[in-house]
Amino acid sequence: MRNFLIGVLIFWFIVVGLIIRDGRAREAESLSGVGGDAKGRVEVVFWHAMGGPLGNVMDDLIGRFNKSQPTYFIKGIPMGSYDTLAKKLLASLVAKSAPDIAQNYETLTKKFIKHKKIVCLDALLASESEDIKADIIPVLLDNNTFDGKLWSFPFNKSVPVLYYNKDIFRQVGLDPEKPPTTLTELASYARHITRHFTPENGGRPTIIGFATGRANVWMFLCRVMQFGGLLVDEKGGKSHFHEEPAVKAVAFIQEMLKEGIAVEAQGFDHQNDFKAQRIAMIENSIVSKVHMESGIKFNYGIAPLPGEASRAVILSGSNINIFDNGDPDKVKGAWEFIKWFTSTDIGAEWSVRTTYVPVRKSSLQAPILMEALAKDPNLRAPYEELEYIAFEPRLSCWFEVRDLMADVLERATLEMGDPATYMKEMSKNIDGILRHNPD
Amino acid sequence: MSTNVKKPLIKNPSHILIHALLIAGSIFMIFPFVWMIMTSFKSEDEILKTGKTIVLLPDQMRPSFLNGEEDKKRIAEHQRQKELYAASLASPASATAGGKKVQKPFEVFDNYKEAWAAQPFYRYFLNTFLTAITITTGSLIFASLAAYAFAFFKFPFKDQLFLLMLGTMMLPQQALLIPDYIILSKLHWVNTYMALIVPWLASAYSVFFLRQFFMQLPKDLFEAAMLDGCTRLQFYFKICLPLSKPPMVTLGIFSFLGTWNSFVWPLIVTNDTSLRVIQVGLSYFASEAGTRWGPLMAASTFTIVPLVVMYFLAQRQFVESQAMSGMKE
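The joint structure predicted for all components is written out below.
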């Protein structure tokens, strides 16, 4: 036992020694590293939730901003998921140790406005010679405007799209350049594909037509709008999920599941099934492209989500807030960075490399984006969807509502009961939440 | 032990059933680990597209007679790519086949290389070791001292204090996250090793656990020692601790494992990469739009190696101390 303890102690000292050594090495490295260091500059702390390949692009751009000018230094700190980022933001605001900028959803922005934690961007915009507001894609501007004022800046907004396997389309006699444009078409394509791959003597099909995520609120909301429905009134606190379009949205998936021409996957599993060519079409965020494309060994296409009564998709992703930490220099630095990051050319580059929607209209005409589109037509879908994009209600209780919806949706496809009953229940319960949280 | 007495292989027929259950149980427990290790040696292609045969073994380790149709196709494709790549290396002119650059074919350790390079895991390991060892030893010292006091001494409000301490166990960790963060922030400890270590040095559960054990030690032992002129601290060090090796080792393992696996706390209280721990590093491979299984499993594998080593080392202590507790009182 004594030897064991002595061993542990020695090991502890070795670890401490190595940490000190590693610390010195890092210091030396950062002095000569990319983007220089913060010495003599205004340091602006930026908390974000970009990991993996997206994080690499983010780091690259932050490094370039730091090199591009001598006054400000952006310190990007990845926080894992949006969820942990939100938690940490709330804690740090109470503890008065908030970052200078952070990625954030609209619902929290609302809370921050109420508690006067963030800087209104209108004054910053007014100080610019260029009319930036006029160049922001209108829906993104609306998404970040609260009571007529711009409180957050659109930053990394994504849209859902339809991924489809062109090789399978060809194999079953469908035109690979003509993806389904309506939900009815989607179902009939899925049926056609599934039947083609069902063995003659019965048994399981080797390839299934369509897949989506289980209890995926985002896709459900898109479908409600595609069937011509409304979601929740932002003012007035009433939900529309008991109405026909929402019932149709649930029935649509239920019927496909019952028929066996679609499957529901947990989390992102359908993405893997698509890559493995077990599923011919999936709906998912355009950002998944960045994660999926490295392993795809077949020809695939990306198309705007099919509509029905009308085309409609809903924005996802986050915006950026500037926190009011009482230092005008930091606010200025934060604004400079946001301006640079979303500028015509950088915004276009960010969009091409991550598939997030650019913030500015002029980015859509930027050479780098045009070039990328020419090279990879699959990048086109999100830009086409820009015409009819919408966003989710920005209610402070929205996350609670979303949880409730996920719950009902999950039951609807597990139990396969009457869709109208589920929707009536959903609507009633949401109205209950809205009554207690009117904004 | 005499060598010429033949032991029957099975002493009691009911043992067969017990063993069968235990074996089934261990296969059940081991399977995720085997899957993890096997996946770490597979290319993404292979992970997603397993043939109909043995799914576990990676292509490059599986005997060929186990391969299904799909597996054979994939292996042939991989072989072709290897040759293409070798050719492209030999003559740079052929490096672009059909306008596309020839991709490097997957090799067995690629996931490990990718994972190790993706994040500063070396530093993460050091940080995790530092916090885990400090927390484990620290919490054992504090918990055993507190438990010793609760078990052997009489002092005012003893029961109330003990209940109060137990009460802290009832609060879920999530509820404490934000208040804890605020306290740390007031102490200016956010983004320091202090934040990673100090809040975990005391644990109500450990105190409770050890107190229950100490209560079982004969009171006579304590009184006899006191009569012989032993001080309270001497009794703690010379008699109490040596007798409680099993619970101490058990708690040690718990607290080491707990620290090794903690994720949300270190993520929330640190900002710099140089302070982050391995679980935070692992989360890099799982993002909002998908998980990179190969590198994630490779990283998970090298993450648990120290745990396994630690467990074996501690297990010996565990067995040793149990053997000693068989002494006559």
